[in-house]
Amino acid sequence: MKIAIGNDHTGVEMKNAIVEYLEDNGYEVINIGTDTPESVDYPDYGFKVGELVVNKTADLGIVICGTGVGISIAANKVKGIRAALCNETTVAKLVREHNNANVLALGARLLANHKALWIVQEFLDTQFDAGRHAKRVTKLDNY
Ligand code: RB5
């Protein structure tokens, strides 16, 4: 499975921990940066990860900023993206099952790295339930 990952300057350390974890576990990672502490604008990274998922270069995306909010808003501007901010593994499971979320957003200033890894694994391990959820997700995509 191929995962696109992008972040602003607040998320470099968390991103590095996630990339190492994913590569150690057999995932292919497309890291679009940023990779330095120099201040950047989170929308640029959210848009880019969203585009990589929508054009199927990646299967799923992960975006990180200080709260996870700004970069999730950015990713959600890309048509076809359903980015979900998750601070708990339960949420990560539900956003895959119910919303078919295709981008996971994380807040680097709010989460410890080890907890972020649990959330990432839950997100990647969980499949869309389809069924009654499918028509709702189609409504999102058609808007
Ligand atoms: C950067 O200071 C911060 O605003 C950004 O990382 C993010 O939290 C925005 O939503």
UniProtKB/TrEMBL annotation:
**GO terms classed as biological process:** D-allose catabolic process; pentose-phosphate shunt, non-oxidative branch
Active site annotation, chain numbering: 65, 98
Q: Where does D-ribulose 5-phosphate bind?
A: 8-9, 66-70, 99, 109, 132, 136
The highest taxon in the source lineage is: Bacteria
Q: Write the protein's name.
A: Ribose 5-phosphate isomerase
Write the lineage as a comma-separated list.
Answer: Bacteria, Bacillati, Mycoplasmatota, Mollicutes, Entomoplasmatales
Any idea which UniProt keywords this protein has?
A: Isomerase
The molecular function GO annotations come to: ribose-5-phosphate isomerase activity
Enumerate the InterPro entries for this protein.
RpiB, RpiB_LacA_LacB, RpiB_LacA_LacB_sf
Q: Does the keyword Isomerase feature in the UniProt annotation?
A: yes
Q: Please report which protein family the annotation says this sequence is part of.
A: Belongs to the LacAB/RpiB family.
